[in-house]
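HUMAN: Mind sharing a backbone?

ASSISTANT:
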Amino acid sequence: MEFYPTDDLKESRAGSGINDRETVKAQYETAEKLDIRISIHSRYSTNKQGFGNWIASHYDIRDGMSVLELGCGTGDMWTGKQETIRRCSRLILSDFSEGMLDKAKETLRDYEGIEYRVIDIQEIPFKDGKFDLVIANMMLYHVPDLQKGLREVRRVLKENGTFCCATFGEHGMMEYISGLFSAGSNPGGSGSSFTLQNGGEKLRTVFHDVRELRYEDSLEVTDVEDMVDYIKSLTGMSEMRKLPREEIRSVLEANMRDGILHVPKEYGMFIAR
C-alpha cells in the first residue's frame, strides 16, 4: 500500500476555522472520507514513484536511531518498510485523532517494533533531546500555534537531529477545483499557515539549516465520478458540496480534454536541522 497526500482537508480553511482542534479531530476521526481522498491519488497520479516512496527516499534512518512521527494518519507510509522499522531502536507513530491512530494500528498490525501514542505536536510528552528524527507530513497547516509546535519538535530532537515535513504548495488541486466552480475564497495563498511557499521561512525561525525539495506530479482523471466523490468528501467547502452531483459532473466533463481531466498537484517537503 502506498502513502498518498491527504492535505485536501486544507480547504476547510476557506471559512470553517482550521485552527479549531475539535473540527480537525472530527474530520479525521474515521477513515472513510480520508480513503476517498487517498484513492483519487492512487488511481490517477502521473508520477508512479508514489509520494510516500519519494518522501521515504529522503529519510536517513540508520541502525539504532529513535524516530517519532507526528500525524501518522492511516500508517500507510510504513507499509513495506520492515527493514527500515527494524533499524529503529524506537519508532513511535502518533496522531491527534484516536480514530486515525486505530486505523494505523490496523494497517500495520503485522509489523513489530512500533509504538502508538495520541500526541498533540504543541505538547509533545517527551524529554529534551530524545529523537534522531521527527516526521510531520501533511499536517503542520492544522496546528493552531505553529511556532509552539515547531519549538516542541526542536526541543525533543537530539543536537544533530533532523525534522522532515511534507506539505502542499499554493497552486495545486484545491486551487484548481475552486477555479472550476468559482468557489470564492482561495484555500491556498497567504492564508495557508504552512505551504511550500512560506514553510521554509517559518522553519528558519527555529532551525538553522532548512532544505526544500519538490515532488513533480499531477492527476489525469478518466472517470469523473471519482472526482465527484472526492469533491463531496471535502469537509470545508460546504457550498461546493451542496451542489447536485449532476452539476458537479457537468462542470468536470466540460473541462476534460480527450477524455481526461488534467488536475495540477503541488507537493514537496522540507528537511530541517
